[in-house]
């Protein structure tokens, strides 16, 4: 489930709106179902919309460079050629795009209003069910927001010369109280989700359904990675050289299948890798007048002998868990891991781009404390979309009384993005 309105919203859009002024967060832009919405709350969600629009445009460009008929993002007839200047191309990218059948600016407005309705809906439902934050939770949350407000982000400081994040937020019209409101509703959102799907909730899954979802959608494994590269990082050319890497990978797999501790095999692989790096670096930096008066061979051997790597003492420190929709691994390796039985056996997989993997597939039941620490994540993966859909339907017909001049003019998406 995506959490809307994060308190760090808008950072990615800062380049376009940072230097604007005269947008103090001291008023209300609309009333939704009787709830007043601060200017800053609206602007924060609007910047989330900028980022989401940018992501959709980028994803579409990656999958369909020609903006084919099947793409969800396209360019309208007024778009100029991409052979024009960088500035024109950037303007084209955002302002002349069609997202899900809508012009960019209309899409941003609708996406922002959807978040605003959800913002109100969560509060309404929490009031209905008596869900609230404790005084301690609210105090901790406010302190966290204030720490963000007063923090000095190195990137923003270097690029834009701001001394604290408060300067950024104020420049884009977002005040501290707005950030606190959003953070509070984010926290209520989590509580509301668990009211429905957590233990004892009216929509909570049975243990059987929960276990089946974990079995079908998660994989536990340990991994060692080798490459067809020489000491200098150059690709191996001959079959004989590649066969040596294959043999080493198989040796590791055999040792693990014979019951040797994973940390011991990993230590050997880490040591070999570090020694190869040291060997190449020593060879490149060697000079005949080195202070020890060593020959090249002696100098390299000395560097290799001095290499140390950390030895592990707990195999479980190397346990990894993969969710089926993750993209942390290459697609071919991920598919291979999910295809293996959960029997603790180790095998060798030759992946793409010169990688060789030693893979141990584990049972999810073998993991230490995973169930307890990841229960929330599993529920989100199981029901996040259902929850979002339910909330959107509940909020879609809320009565909205909006200051059209602020929404369509002063804070219009294009104007806010262009003020740079």
In percent, how helical is the residue content?
Answer: 40-55%
Average pLDDT figure: 87
Please tell me what the overall shape is.
Answer: globular
| Record field, number of beta strands | 10
Total domain units: 2
First and last CA, distance: 33 Å
Quickly count the helices. Answer: 16
Structural class: alpha+beta
In the sheet with the most strands, the strands line up as 7-6-9-8
> What's the main sheet like?
4 strands, antiparallel
Estimated share of beta-strand residues: 5-15%
Could you name the ranges where pLDDT drops below 50 across 5 or more consecutive residues?
Answer: 1-22, 77-87
How large, in whole angstroms, is the Cα Rg?
28 Å
Task: Using brief descriptors, characterize the structure shown.
420 residues, alpha+beta, 4-stranded antiparallel beta sheet, globular, 3-stranded antiparallel beta sheet, 16 helices
Describe the fold and architecture.
The protein has about 425 residues and is α+β, with helices and mostly antiparallel strands. It has two domains: about 10-205 and about 370-420, no CATH class; about 210-370, no CATH class. Helix content is about 55%, strand content about 10%. The chain contains 16 helices and ten strands. It has helices spanning about 15, 40-65, 85-95, 105-130, 135-150, 155-160, 165-170, 175-195, 205-215, 240-255, 260-285, 295-305, 330-340, 370-395, 405-410, 415-420; strands spanning about 30, 35-40, 75, 95-100, 100-105, 220-225, 320-325, 345-350, 355-360, 400. The strands form three sheets. A four-stranded antiparallel beta sheet has the order 7-6-9-8, sandwiched between helices. A three-stranded antiparallel beta sheet has the order 2-1-10. A hairpin with a 2-residue loop joins β1 and β2 (about 35-40). α4 packs across α14 (about 370-395). It is globular and about 80 Å long. Residues about 1-20 and about 75-85 have low confidence and may be disordered.
């Amino acid at each position: 489930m995506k959490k809307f309105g994060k308190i760090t919203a808008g950072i990615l859009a800062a380049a376009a709106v940072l230097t604007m002024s005269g947008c103090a967060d001291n008023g209300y832009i609309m009333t939704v179902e009787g709830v007043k919405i601060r200017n800053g709350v609206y602007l924060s969600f609007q910047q989330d919309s900028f980022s989401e629009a940018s992501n959709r445009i980028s994803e579409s460009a990656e999958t369909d460079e020609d903006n084919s008929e099947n793409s969800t993002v396209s360019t309208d007839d007024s778009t100029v050629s991409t052979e024009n200047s960088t500035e024109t191309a950037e303007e084209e990218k955002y302002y002349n795009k069609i997202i899900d059948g809508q012009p960019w600016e209309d899409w941003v407005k609708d996406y922002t209003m959807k978040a605003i309705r959800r913002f109100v809906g969560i509060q309404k439902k929490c009031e209905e069910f008596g869900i609230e934050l404790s005084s301690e939770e609210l105090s901790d949350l406010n302190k966290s927001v204030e720490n963000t407000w007063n923090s000095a982000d190195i990137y923003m400081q270097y690029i834009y010369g701001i001394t604290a994040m408060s300067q950024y937020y104020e420049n884009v019209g977002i005040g501290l109280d707005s950030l606190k409101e959003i953070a509070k509703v984010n926290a209520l959102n989590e509580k509301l989700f668990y009211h429905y799907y957590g233990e004892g909730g009216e929509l909570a899954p049975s243990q059987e359904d929960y276990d089946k979802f974990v079995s079908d959608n998660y994989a536990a494994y340990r991994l060692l990675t080798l490459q067809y590269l020489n000491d200098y990082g150059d690709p191996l050319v001959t079959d004989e050289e590649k066969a040596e890497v294959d043999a080493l990978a198989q040796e590791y797999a055999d040792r693990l299948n014979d019951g040797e501790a994973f940390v011991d095999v990993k230590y050997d692989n880490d040591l070999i890798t570090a020694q190869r790096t040291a060997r190449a670096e020593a060879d490149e930096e060697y000079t005949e007048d080195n202070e020890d008066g060593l020959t090249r061979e002696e100098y390299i051997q000395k560097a290799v002998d001095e290499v140390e790597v950390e030895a592990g003492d707990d195999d479980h420190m190397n346990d990894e868990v993969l969710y089926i929709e993750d993209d942390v691994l290459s697609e071919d390796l991920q598919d291979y891991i999910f295809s293996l039985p959960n029997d603790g056996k180790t095998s060798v997989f030759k992946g793409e781009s010169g990688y060789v993997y030693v893979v141990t597939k584990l049972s999810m039941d073998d993991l230490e404390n995973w169930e307890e620490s990841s229960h929330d994540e599993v529920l989100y993966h199981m029901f996040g979309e259902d929850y979002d859909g339910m909330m959107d339907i509940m909020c879609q017909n809320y009565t909205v009384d909006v200051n059209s001049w602020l929404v369509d003019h002063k804070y219009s998406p294009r104007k806010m993005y262009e003020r740079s």
